[in-house]
Sequence to fold (194 residues):
Amino acid sequence: MATATFPEIFTEARTYPRFRAEPVSDELLRAVWDASRFGPTAMNSGPLRVAFVRSPDAKERLVACAAAGNVDKIKSAPVTAILAFDTDFHEKLPKLYPHAGAALERFRAQTVEERSGVAKSNAWLGAAYFIVAARGYGLDCGPMGGFDATKVDAAFFAGKTLRSFLLVNLGYGDPASLHPRNERLSFDEACELV
Fold:
């Protein structure tokens, strides 16, 4: 598997709305996960979970949950990753953070809603690493909101403790689908030294 350079991951990478009809292998999806799981999270909690959607039936179920503007994007991508956070992430702490002790008991005493803030904020960290890992292995990405999370959860995570928060189309982007790159805020516009 090819690995990308720093510019290919960051300054040259683009968000693709359309993809070429090239498959993405199971091996490559596993490699993306295996790299992304090493991103930092609070207490090494790793609450991110991923469902890789690519079968025609699964794609149709996902399209039924998407905003109109995202339907063709999902259909174009060989894979759409549903990123979710696990509201019972803390039950993995004995493996991931064996010295959690009091934190584990505190999470167990909380409601699902109380735990969800921690789970979701750390899953967002995981999502960033997921995109970086995918780009690092040469995949183009199309992260997007614009879907009914309640419907996605019912269609893909029924009976599970997972809540979707982001979709990421994966594949090999079609350059013809890109618009000119938009501006980004400069250091002076977005940062301060104190």
Summary: The chain has one domain: 6-190. The radius of gyration is 18 Å.
